[in-house]
C-alpha cells in the first residue's frame, strides 16, 4: 500500500521533471511556494527544506512574486528557520529587481513593454 502526505518532495520533483512551472499561480495568485509556506507545520520542516531546495535548483523560481493580497511567499510564514534558510539560498535576478523598481517608481510601462513583460512586472508589484 502506498502512502502519501502533503507536502511530498518526491511528488514535487516528479512534477518538475514533467515540466511543472514553479511560478504557476492559482486564482488568488499563490505560487507553489506561497502554498508550501502557508501550509507547512513544524513537523514537516525537513520536507519543506527539501522542496525549497528542489524549487531553487530549477533556477527558474521567482520567490519575489506576489499574490493578489500583495504578499510574497516569505510573507506567508513565520517559521524563522525557513525564513533564514530561504534568505541564505535565494538570489533575486536583475530582471526581478528592475520589475520591482518600476512599480516602486510608478513608471507607466504598459505602453512600452510586451504583454508578457507587463504581466511579469505586475507580479512584482508590492
Looking at this protein, list some descriptive labels.
globular, Serine Threonine Protein Phosphatase 5, Tetratricopeptide repeat
Short overview:
Helix content is 47%, strand content 0%. The protein has 126 residues and is mainly alpha-helical.
Q: Give the DSSP E fraction (strand runs of 2 or more residues).
A: under 5%
- Please provide the count of β strands: 0
Look at the helices and sheets and give the structural class. mainly alpha
Order of helices and strands: HHHHHH
| Dominant shape | globular
From the N-terminal CA to the C-terminal CA, the straight-line distance is: 46 Å
Mean pLDDT metric: 88
Largest sheet: none
Low-confidence stretches: none
- For the record, the CATH class of the largest domain is Mainly Alpha
Structural account:
The chain is an all-alpha fold and 126 residues long. The chain has two domains: 1-91, Serine Threonine Protein Phosphatase 5, Tetratricopeptide repeat; 92-126. The chain is built from six helices and no strands. It has helices at residues 9-17, 32-39, 45-57, 80-89, 94-104, 115-122. Helix 3 packs parallel to helix 4. The radius of gyration is 16 Å and the shape is globular. The protein starts with 8 loop residues before the first helix and ends with a helix.
Amino acid at each position: 500500500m502506498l502512502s502519501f502526505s502533503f507536502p511530498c518532495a518526491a511528488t514535487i520533483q516528479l512534477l518538475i521533471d514533467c515540466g511543472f512551472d514553479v511560478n504557476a499561480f492559482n486564482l488568488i495568485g499563490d505560487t507553489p511556494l506561497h502554498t508550501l509556506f502557508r501550509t507547512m507545520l513544524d513537523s514537516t520542516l525537513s520536507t519543506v527544506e527539501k522542496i525549497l531546495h528542489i524549487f531553487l535548483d530549477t533556477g527558474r523560481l521567482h520567490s519575489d512574486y506576489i499574490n493578489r493580497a500583495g504578499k510574497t511567499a516569505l510573507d506567508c510564514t513565520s517559521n524563522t528557520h525557513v525564513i533564514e534558510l530561504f534568505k541564505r539560498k535565494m538570489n533575486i535576478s536583475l530582471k526581478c529587481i528592475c520589475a520591482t523598481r518600476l512599480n516602486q517608481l510608478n513608471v507607466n510601462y504598459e505602453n512600452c513593454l510586451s504583454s508578457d513583460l507587463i504581466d511579469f512586472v505586475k507580479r512584482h508589484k508590492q
